[in-house]
Amino acid sequence: MVNRLETKNITLTVGSNNMKAKQHKLTVLHQNICSLRHKVTDLEVLLSTELKDVDVLCLTEHWQNAQTISCTNICNFKPVSVFCRMSSNHGRSGIYVKDGQITR
Fold first, then answer.
1. What would you report as the CA-atom Rg of the chain, rounded to the nearest whole angstrom?
2. pLDDT at residue 104 in the model
3. CA 44 – CA 29 distance, rounded (Å)
4. Which among 21, 50, 86, 94 could bridge 82 via Cys, Cβ 3.0 to 4.6 Å?
5. What are the angstrom distances between the C-alpha of 9 and each of 3, 6, 17, 53, 60?
6. CA–CA distance, 44 with 32 (Å, rounded to integer)
7. What CA dihedral angle connects 102, 10, 56 and 87, to 10 degrees?
8. pTM, to two decimals
9. How many CB atoms lie within 10 A of CB 39?
10. Which residues pair with 81 in a beta bridge?
11. CA–CA dist 34, 3 (Å, integer)
12. Which domains, ranges and CATH numbers included, belong to the chain?
């Protein structure tokens, strides 16, 4: 089960001297997932209910290799950066962005 969730709201001000500045709210969730393999469904339920305002999802300790992480989909989120260590079964991290939000 997913536990100890940390969310952070960030307000970004975008603009220049020639443009009217706009503020954008961005909610970031960090989760030390300790093996994503059997927790995708729990994570998707949380992201569609209690954590529906999350824009960026940062996962550490997903424990997957490059092949399995590329086949792991999180509903409504796209991977923008994923790191997989070759020398260890543990560790590894990934950053996912909600569909329609920031692009790479």
1. 15
2. 47
3. 13
4. 94
5. 19, 10, 25, 10, 19
6. 15
7. 110
8. 0.74
9. 17
10. 95
11. 10
12. 6-98 (3.60.10.10)
